[in-house]
Amino acid sequence: MIGSLRGRIAAKTPPQLMIDVSGVGYELEAPMSTFFHLPAIGHEVSLLTHLVVREDAHVLYGFATQNERRLFRNLLKVSGVGPKIALALLSGISVEAFAQCILNQDVDSLVRVPGIGRKTAERLFVEMRDRIGPLEGVAGAADSGGTSPEAEALSALIGLGYKPAEATRLLKVVDPGTHSTEELIRRALQGAARD
Question: Is it the case that residue 176 has pLDDT exceeding 80?
């Protein structure tokens, strides 16, 4: 099984991307939450992966964070939810917001995601309630109303291949507490490029 890939982005057209790993191009599909954090074509990236084997194809899915991949894998265990719906869910709602929807049984937020109807949402409530706990940090985040931009940025940088200590150092330099998650990541990556 392929657990992760590290290489240069050769092409990206949401939801597909190709990563060149030492001359071998791996085609992946990734949720929009991962696409938002991808560097430009030609830059190096590190993604966690999940391989889905079907009769007609082997499809590799890529994720920026451990929580995204964990949620994807848990969604695949839900009756009637395949990779396409799981990818749509991760593209349409954050891991933390999904956990909040499950805990609050918020049907309206889930049915806004393309491909999710009321029956699927209700099935998700029943089958995902016990699986939300293993999503590291999500239960606490859902109880406190969400994760801080700093925590999300740190998770994204680690998902991009930075060691936790290095990611923390990069974020300390960019004046945390005053920027959105996206801006923190952008500034941290610019700082890393200058180093």
Answer: no
- The answer to whether 151 touches 159, Cβ cutoff 8 Å, is no
- Interval 133-167: pLDDT, tens: 545 444 343 333 445 777 777 777 777 777 767 77
pTM more than 0.85: no
The mean pLDDT value for 89-101 works out to: 88
Residue among 39, 42, 22, 33 at smallest CA distance from 63: 33
In CATH, what number is assigned to the domain containing residue 82?
Answer: 1.10.150.20
Calculate the alpha carbon distances from 73 to 78, 103, 122 in Å: 9, 19, 19
- List the CATH number of the domain containing 176: 1.10.8.10
Domain of 90?
Answer: 66-144
What is the DSSP code (8-state) at residue 42? T
Q: How many domains does the chain have?
A: 3
Residue in the block written with tokens 């499950």 = 102
Residue range 29-40, pLDDT digits in tens: 999 989 888 999
Strand, helix or coil for residue 29: strand
